[in-house]
């Protein structure tokens, strides 16, 4: 019983320390990078497809499966090629995840036109977004009043 309690206490301590260690809001890769944020209006959104390597992985898996069974008969080689192709393509597709993304054309408050490609669709045409560029691009939906206020501040800056 005492031993079980000790293991449970150690597990709880590890979980608590792990939660504290992962509470940072900035990615480790963001160190020493230029970060800029600005407000923009969404002018247009297009769906895009990211390149998938599942086909190449299936071909490599098929060749590997066939070559692994080269000392068997032709049925063994064919079965190995089929299983290797399915396994290689399926694993690659799982690791790649969703290959759908979105290209946004944005009209920044300062008048610049900016195109960004992101993996999720959070905003629609005519909406206000805050754009954060720090090694990668993130859009977050904002009320129109924030874009209006940023536009007034920009006009006052000139």
From TrEMBL:
<keyword id="KW-0732">Signal</keyword>
<protein>
    <recommendedName>
        <fullName>Glycine zipper 2TM domain-containing protein</fullName>
    </recommendedName>
</protein>
<feature type="signal peptide">
    <location>
        <begin position="1"/>
        <end position="26"/>
    </location>
</feature>
């Amino acid at each position: 019983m005492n031993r079980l309690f000790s293991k449970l206490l150690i597990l709880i301590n590890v979980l608590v320390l792990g939660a504290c260690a992962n509470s940072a809001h900035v990615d480790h890769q963001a160190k020493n990078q230029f970060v800029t944020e600005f407000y923009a209006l969404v002018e247009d959104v297009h769906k895009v497809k990211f390149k998938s390597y599942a086909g190449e992985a299936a071909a490599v898996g098929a060749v590997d499966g066939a070559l692994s069974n080269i000392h068997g008969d032709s049925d063994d080689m064919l079965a190995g090629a089929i299983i290797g192709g399915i396994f290689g393509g399926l694993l690659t597709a799982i690791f790649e995840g969703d290959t759908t993304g979105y290209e946004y054309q944005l009209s920044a408050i300062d008048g610049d036109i900016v195109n960004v490609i992101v993996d999720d669709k959070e905003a629609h045409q005519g909406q206000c977004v805050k754009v954060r560029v720090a090694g990668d691009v993130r859009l977050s939906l904002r009320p129109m009043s924030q874009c209006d206020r940023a536009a007034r501040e920009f006009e006052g800056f000139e």
